[in-house]
Amino acid sequence: MNTLTIDIRKADPRDASAIAEVHQQAWRGAYSGIIPHRTLTSMINRRGPDWWANAIRKAATVLVVEIGGTVAGYATIGKNRARELRQQGEIYELYLRPEYQGIGLGSRLFKAAKTRLADHGLRGLVVWALEDNHNALAFYAGNGGRDVAEGVEVFEHKALKKVAFVWE
Q1: CATH of residue 28
Q2: Which of 18, 54, 140, 144 could join 165 via S-S bond, C-beta 3.0 to 4.6 A?
Q3: Residues near 31 by Cβ (< 8 Å), separated by ≥ 6?
């Protein structure tokens, strides 16, 4: 019998290729049909292994969730960028490879990110999700987030609503 371990840890530059792959797969799965194709492809292509290695080496806090030694997902976290919201912490991104979605890994990664922000003295948490990304909306609502604000992101002249979820 094989036992798979699940580990959530701070990313290392050696994780850059795996994170880039998760990013590509997760973004295609989440945003195809929502963000215009050309823009989505461009956004994904900008974030290859070199981009991720540089982000990890610099100030960005990137967490990865591994299952059986394979990077299954990542989260990027830091200070809240929306001045109108009083929460101090923000999860900028939280994505899993499609084959690892729906089995609880996202919730575990979310809780670890939330804890890491609190451990750094950041009170409260905000996460933004595109309104048309129904899976993300359900995930954050299901994890106790309150929908408190809206904004707009423009992609190739297409305005998409985004929703802010908060936790105190």
Answers
A1: 3.40.630.30
A2: 140
A3: 40, 130, 133
